[in-house]
Structure formats: structure tokens, C-alpha cells
Amino acid sequence: MGAHVSKQVERRKSIQTEKKVLTEMKQSNGCEFPCSDYHPSDRKNWMSGLNPDKVQINQIVWPGTHDSATNKIGFPFVTRPFAQCQSLSIYQQLVTGARVLDIRVQEDRQVCHGILVSYSVDVVIEDVKKFLSETQSEVIILEIRTEFGHDDPPDFDKYLEDQLGEYLIPQDDQVFGKKISELLPKRVICVWKPRKSPQPKAGGLLWNAGHLKDNWIDTDLPSTKFESNIKHLGEQQPVTARKFFYRVENTVTPQADNPILCVKPVTDRIHPYARVFISQCFSRGIADRLQIFSTDFIDEDFVDACAGLTNARAEGKA
């Protein structure tokens, strides 16, 4: 018992130390970067506001949500706090400005996070289609994967093609160098990541797992995650040289050996430092690598930061 208590005391010290590191980094180095003061007049249409005839797909800094469809997961006040990573619906996230969605499904097409279940993936698709029907030039990356420990939903590739076919941008490496306007009216890059079923093939309507990559580190230590993100991002080629999307997630996750297991208070350890991360990318010479930037509990400031850097790239300022 004494050893366990001692371990927890040390864990709390480590967390406080790491939070202090990020706080001091923000105070000493700031969180400014080219166009960091940019604020879209209409976040629902922020890509349109940057001129689709000018912005290339590989210039976009895509604001994304981690475990996107968890706003209704589990039971309220009972299991939900342990798995909820977003409080907004899919539609509300898109209206706020999110452009990358991270959806996990199980065999029956229910959205899930581990063993906890949310709503049917139909709800996600309907929200996406509602948003697309209300906008004209907003492009979405929709990543759907089979959750770990589950089998693929039967015929799920056909389901996605049937539901989103009119909007789907076919898998094509040339897309990365094209401007938004060159892809319209197609507006969804759908990345389907099955566990056992065949991967989508080149030229098809769905994109395969090799087109959306990341280096996930499972930790609740904010500075550890921050520096890991910097390290792995620095190992990537610049966005102009890549034929895949690379994601960095400004998140930390609860750990079983720590008494704080609810997502919100844990992820809040790193959530306020998204702009610091972008600023550090410039300071360390790797800003040209940043592409998809995701978060738990997305907010307007996070979207503004990504839109601002996208604007800077489109204007030749970054």
C-alpha cells in the first residue's frame, strides 16, 4: 500500500512538473506565428473565406477532432466521462470549423471507443451530409476505422460509397497538389481503415490507411506528449513532398495507473498549448511539416489557429 501511495505521489509531481514546463515555454517564447491573429469571419465556411482558387490541399492545416463521435458515448455521469473526447455533435464540430473526423466503428456499425458504444455511424453520415448541403467549398477528411478488438462491419466500403458517393474525392496522389476549387463539387476524402478486410485500392472512391498516418504516444504527461509530437513531426518530409496526410494530436489520455481517469481534466493538461505548439514548430524549423492538427473538445480558438496558418501559407507568409 505504501509503495502504491508513493508511486502516485511521484506521478502527481511529474504531471505538475510537465505542466510547468509548457507554461514556462508559453511565457518565455509566446504563441505567435505568421497570421496567428487571423480570425475567420465565418468558421462554418472558413475554407471558402481563404479563396478556394488559391489554396492548395497540401497548404491546409486541417483542424481535426480526436475520437470525434463520442459526445453521446456510454451513460451520462457514469461511463461517459471516461470516454468522451468531444462535447459537440459531428455537425456542430464541422460548423465550428473542424475538417478532419476520427470515427471508430464496431461490427454492427455502431460508433465505439473501446468497449463503450455511442450511436450508429448513420448519425455521423447524416451530420456530414447536412453540413455539406449547407456549404459549397469546405473539404472534409473523414477517417473511419474498425476499433481495436473488433471485426470489420460487413460490406462497409460499399455502405460508405453508397452514402457519400456524390461527394467522394477518389484516391489519387495528384490531389495533394491541387487547389480546393479543382476538386469541387467533390468534397470528402474518406479514409477507410479496416482491420481484416482488403484496403481500398488506388483510383477507387475510398482512400487507404497509408494516406493518413500518425505516431500516437499513449501518455497523460503533457510535456512528454508535446515533445514526442515535435520529434515525430520533425522526422516527416515537408507537406509539399508528401503523398499522404500526417496527423499530430494535441491530446493526452488517462492512464490506468493514475486515479484521474476522466478524459476532460487529463486532456486539459495540454489543450491550452496548441498555439504554443505551432509557434514551436516555427522556432524549431519544422512548420512546413504541420498538416492535420487534432484535439479533444475542439473550440473556436483551435480552429482559428489552424485557419490562420493556412492563410499564411496561401499568402506566401509561411
From TrEMBL:
Any GO MF annotation of the entry: phosphoric diester hydrolase activity
Gene3D superfamilies: Phosphatidylinositol (PI) phosphodiesterase (3.20.20.190)
InterPro entries given in the database record: PI-PLC_domain, PLC-like_Pdiesterase_TIM-brl, PLipase_C_PInositol-sp_X_dom
Source superkingdom: Eukaryota
SMART domains from the UniProt entry: PLCXc
Cited PROSITE patterns: PIPLC_X_DOMAIN
One BP annotation, GO: lipid metabolic process
CDD domains in the cross-refs: PI-PLCXDc_plant
Database matches in SUPFAM superfamilies: PLC-like phosphodiesterases
Short name of one Pfam family: PI-PLC-X
PANTHER family reported in the protein's UniProt record: PTHR13593, SI:DKEY-266F7.9
Record protein name field: Phosphatidylinositol-specific phospholipase C X domain-containing protein
